[in-house]
Structures
1.
Amino acid sequence: MDISVHKVRRRRRIAAAILAWALALPAAAADAPTPMGQKGHWTPGERLYSYCLSEVKGMAENPLCVGFVSAVADVLAEHTAVSGYRACIRNDLTVQHLVVAVKEYLKVRRDLVTLPAATLVARALAHEWPCK
């Protein structure tokens, strides 16, 4: 694959993540402030679970879930481990594929929501797209 195509795709993913977070800011502002919790992580797994498995009127997915999954996926795409997990995410996948994989993992592994949200996303993506 041409390096410029890779750069364009990466920029699109980053732009989509930024847009998702920007659209979600009013909803996030309504949440009560949360002090830094689990081992220095800002977002607990319980909150990610509620973001990803809740509906937002007029949207296919909760933008907070999409933004969070996109951000962790971008770090993993740079071949950097997140909480010790690595994922080999193919370039032909969309953010929607990633969100669906994370949502399905959260449904099956509800017992893991005590983990930090970043760990849950990394673990879900590594489960779906392990590096060989």
2.
Amino acid sequence: MDDLGKQRRAALRLVVVGAATMASISCGDDPTTLPTEGAILVAATTVGTDFDTDGYTVSVNSTQAGVLGNLDTIYVDKLEPGNYQVSLSGIAANCSTASGLNPLTVEVVPADTVNAEFEVTCDVPPPPDGGGDPL
């Protein structure tokens, strides 16, 4: 066999070994699977006076997700993509959400976190039974 033939066979062997190595690497279990779930970060900002002392109950699609303080956030994760209704309940009688935005509709997408932000305004509650004795 001449030198040119030996070089061609050596080059062919390198190509075959390289291709086999690449195939074994790319055909193995791929640990980099793409995420299929998303999350919601629920936030409450309470303004005014006489805040709700026990905070609010957060529900996502009518399922309780946790308790949220007056200036607090909670993270609801492992959610499939789609639209979700996020609501606050347990709001004191002297408090209300801004412009009645309760519940909020948010869209969860894979590998991302969407915000559901509530602004709650609290006023001084009226005195019980209309106040004191008239003069």
3.
Amino acid sequence: MRKISQPVIGVLGRAKGFTLLEILIVITILGILASLVAVRMMDRPGEARMTKARLEIQTLENALKLFKLDNAFYPTSEQGLSSIVEKPAVGRIPSKWREGGYLEKGVLPKDPWGYDYLYLSPGVYNRDFDIWSYGADGEEGGEGEDADIGNWVVKGE
């Protein structure tokens, strides 16, 4: 015959397990720990925006390099960054411009603060071109989140 298993009875004569009070205490402790972690993460939105700007600048650089591979020149300052999403209609017209552009989504991104990225070719800091954002304040210079972020800064870090 088969034996039916019975709950294990502890030393005090009751079934082993957690009481409601013990479970509530653990949940409370986990909640406190989670809130501490969330507060630490919430302190860094400025740093996250700056990192996003650096990554987008690198993406724009790569798109410009693809443009040059196809056309043997970089867009002029007058043609601007829009030349990687729309075929330029002014200046030197690229003969092998890629249909659909050079960015995956076909849309020129704004910086994390909602401003346009700036482009200068030939560049002041780089021989071929400079790409930069003025940061949170949208003005040249600044410190912290207001600091300018450019492709010359990205390479230097």
4.
Amino acid sequence: MVENPLAFDFSKTRTICDAFDAAWAFLQGLGSDLTQAPRSLAAQSILAKRITEMADQGLRDIPALRDDALAFLQHGPPSDSRNGLGEAIGAQAAPLTELNQAGSVGETPQPVATGAHSTASMG
């Protein structure tokens, strides 16, 4: 069988898909506005491209691919700052940083209690 250098094998494709799904679920769990129109398509494109690039370089660990893509999104690629996405990504940096400091990015994100939505009175 002739290998096509532009095609991925099933295992690599599955890894890329799983890493993307995990990164997107993480952003959705944060309630990030990057998961809402009109920014969602650009955010998805950045995540997908970064995960694919890193998989092409040999990274196959799903949590590592996810974390790398989220960090890449958080720091805002220079080309995206021209279309306003860089500012939107910057607005998400604090929650991502807080969660990264609190635990692994792979853990289920918990809402941060702030303002009138504090969980202190619940329970």
